Amino acid sequence: MRVIEITEDRGLAPADRDAPRTGGTDVAVDVAFCGVCGSDLHMLEDPSFPTRSVLGHELSGVVRAVGPQVTAVSVGDAVAVLPYESCGTCRSCTTGRENLCASGGHLGSVIGVQRPGGLASTVVADETSVVPLPAGATLEQGALAEPVAVACRAAGKVAGDLDDLVVVVGAGPIGVLVALVLRAQGRRNVHVLEVNGGRRDRAASLGLPVLEPEEGTDAALRERDVATFVDCTGSPGAVALQLGAVRRGGRVVLVGLGPPVQLDAESAILREVEIVGSAGYSRRDFQTAVQLLASGAVPADELITRIAPVAEAASVFADLRDPATPHIKVLLRHDHRGGTTND
């Protein structure tokens, strides 16, 4: 099979590998679309991340083959692939928090991280990690299920009344998706704060209320009585701003990864600020994401700002490194399968 792998000089180049085999509960999926994530860019640039790795943890495709014990899907099914596996028996798994699985989860053996991902023409996943797409859903929508699941997890951490002011900080792919999921949940007062003008315009084009940079100062935010901030930047400065500006008894949901943040513990204690982490997603979050995309509540067509052949992966990654990029989500397309509908 054909793959795009990380080279010694931290580039991307095509290579040929043996096609994966299936046994037991394995499902082989011919990848249709693979989304490019910010973490893919980081892994490519990180010299400690192994060369010859095959990136891509946001993917959809069509079932090519199944192991003899598979009952959940059949050859020819259109599916989205949940990239991690979990044990199913630990405390986290049995309480619906598979993302925190003691032996797997989002820190375990992940497709596109420890295992070959969507930059390969075919991937293998356990049948528990393969989610059939509903009738009428497209493979393009399926490729967004993984980042939308991240957004579903984060949105689920937002508490309070539906009219409370929620400010999502950062209008990159995850920030925009969090705001859209919150809107789909019926929240009526969700705003986005973003310094990148192109991304700010893109968020506004999706009907999301956007705060201008001058509205994102500490004083201006304090006046707005923000009930919850959702940080999708990972910026220590942005997180510190949110911790100081959220109202008394408010909440800051941390989604974006970044350098360590200095915490003013005294202020957080005296104002009873709740600090909540949101890591990855559960299987329920992933299934919810598929349904939101299939229903159009999260508009995939408006979020996908470019589709390119997988052979152009190197140039796509280079373009996305530009901090000024206006793109929300770029998909890489494998030639053996286009954007068909699951009818």
Structure description:
- With 343 residues, the protein is an alpha/beta fold.
- It folds into two domains: 202 residues, Medium-chain alcohol dehydrogenases, catalytic domain (Quinone Oxidoreductase, Chain A, domain 1, Alpha-Beta Complex), CATH 3.90.180.10; 121 residues, 3-Layer(aba) Sandwich (Rossmann fold), CATH 3.40.50.720.
- Strands 3, 4, 5, 6, 7, 14 and 15 form a seven-stranded mixed beta sheet that branches. Strands 10-9-8-11-12-13 form a six-stranded parallel beta sheet, sandwiched between helices.
- Helix 5 links the parallel strand 8 and strand 9.
- Helix 4 crosses helix 5, helix 4 packs across helix 10 and helix 7 crosses helix 8.
- The C terminus is likely disordered.
Would you identify the CATH architecture of the largest domain?
Answer: Alpha-Beta Complex
Q: Would you tell me the structural class of the helices and strands?
A: alpha/beta
How confident overall, as mean pLDDT? 93
> Which radius of gyration do the C-alpha atoms yield?
20 Å
Model regions low in confidence, pLDDT < 50 over at least 5 residues = 337-343
Query: Topology as H/E string?
Result: EEEHEEHEEHHEHEHEHEHEHEHHEHE
Q: Shape from CA axes?
A: globular
Number of strands: 15
- Which topology of the largest domain does CATH recognise? Quinone Oxidoreductase, Chain A, domain 1
Number of helices: 12
Helix content: 25-40%
Cofactor: Zn(2+)
Biased composition (Basic and acidic residues): 1-20
Keywords: Metal-binding, Oxidoreductase, Zinc
Domain Alcohol dehydrogenase-like C-terminal: 173-294
